[in-house]
Automatic annotation (TrEMBL):
The protein, known as: Nitroreductase family protein
GO molecular function, one term: oxidoreductase activity
Organism: Draconibacterium aestuarii
Keyword set includes Metal-binding: no
Source taxon at top rank: Bacteria
Any matching Pfam family: Nitroreductase
Family: Belongs to the nitroreductase family.
Length: 181
């Protein structure tokens, strides 16, 4: 599979088979996060892989409510990964303060992209979830209160024949410029 195929095949999967994800594939995903770049090589994240079914279901339930139900599919995923934002190196904090940038936010976005693209190559589906009950997940996973959860990612095998949706994007000519805005 070429990189071109991977980026075109990757999609947000919202339906999963009841099939466990092999530990060696999970390790490969952890390695992908491990090598992802970050500002000043701070690596300001901790990846928590939740594969215990009961705990995973409790984490999944923290991504939806009675009124906000669009993440209910998370219950089907056999694995949920939680990316926790850690304190970056001092030089990255200083640089971020001077430039008014939140480098750890970018860094976990890159780490999540590496995770999801690697999953695609391994034949797995993912969906990044930004809507969740942080306090509940912190309590379930014993995450210190001073830490912030950046993203929750569902992981598993999409059902056979899961339909690849057409990617809807802005017109190509609207997303770039050469030498000027």
């Amino acid at each position: 599979m070429t990189f071109h195929n991977i980026i075109h095949d990757r999609q947000s999967v919202r339906k999963y088979q009841a099939k466990p994800v092999e530990k060696e594939k999970i390790r490969t995903l952890i390695e992908a996060v491990h090598i992802s770049p970050s500002a000043c090589n701070s690596q300001p994240w901790k990846l928590i892989v939740v594969d215990d079914e009961k705990l995973k279901n409790e984490v999944a339930k923290a991504t939806f409510s009675k009124t906000v139900t669009f993440n209910k599919f998370a219950l089907e995923a056999p694995v949920i990964a939680v990316l926790v934002i850690e304190k970056p190196k001092l030089i990255a904090r200083i640089g971020g303060s001077v430039k008014n940038q939140e480098f750890p936010q970018y860094d976990i976005g890159i780490a999540a992209a590496y995770f999801c693209l690697q999953a695609t190559e391994l034949g797995l589906g993912t969906c990044m979830i930004g809507w969740f009950n942080q306090k509940k997940i912190q309590k379930l996973l014993h995450i210190p209160k001073k830490r912030k959860i950046g993203l929750v990612i569902t992981l598993g095998y999409a059902p056979e024949g899961y339909k690849q949706r057409k990617k809807i994007r802005k017109p190509f000519d609207e997303i770039y410029g050469f030498n000027s805005y």
